[in-house]
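Backbone-to-sequence.
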């Protein structure tokens, strides 16, 4: 019911910035809580940032707080992750995820839909 396509990944030097985009299909975008996850080689997937369907509540992992910003454009059905001051250890595949709105909010999930991921490589 929902298709997510990430873009914007690539190679960046440590300290640099990238903006990831997640384009969502369908006409129910506003009904979904959105999240950004990343999975580095040999590590488990971790939640990076999330936003409530209403946009009124956001979550950031402690490691990225102050450097990353999640935002969404309802008109474009797109969620963004602005990443500043990137570190080599943040090299990972970054995934966009969506979960249909619930009365209670849990940023960590579970999520119902996932994008294919976009590779972010941060060189030292």
């Amino acid at each position: 019911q929902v298709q997510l396509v990430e873009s914007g990944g690539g190679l960046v030097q440590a300290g640099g910035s990238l903006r990831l985009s997640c384009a969502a299909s369908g006409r129910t975008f506003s009904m979904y809580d959105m999240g950004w996850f990343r999975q580095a080689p040999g590590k488990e997937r971790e939640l990076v940032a999330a936003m409530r369907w209403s946009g009124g509540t956001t979550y950031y992992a402690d490691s990225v707080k102050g450097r990353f910003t999640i935002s969404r454009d309802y008109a474009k059905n797109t969620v963004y992750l602005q990443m500043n001051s990137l570190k080599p250890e943040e090299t990972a595949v970054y995934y966009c995820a969506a979960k249909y709105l619930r009365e209670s909010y849990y940023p960590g999930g579970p999520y119902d839909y996932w994008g294919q991921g976009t590779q972010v490589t941060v060189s030292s």
